[in-house]
Secreted protein (Streptomyces pseudogriseolus), 83 residues
Amino acid sequence: MLRHEFRPGRLIAGTALVTAAVIYGGDAGGAWETPWFVVIPLVVGGLCLAGAVGAVTGQVRRRRGRPVPEGADPADHAGTRGG
């Protein structure tokens, strides 16, 4: 049994932001030289992709009719039926 609901949009957003942190961390540590504008497309693209994946996931869950887990706030599960 899963402990929590899988949210692929959050996974993608987290991966994009951790990647940006690693890039800037490597620059700060002297491992490589990173121009300041390199991370902007990574973060913006990652957040846009995460939003698109989150929207598709919400539509899939709405279509399947998955109920909201017991004791959870229905506002946290936008796009699902139940309650």
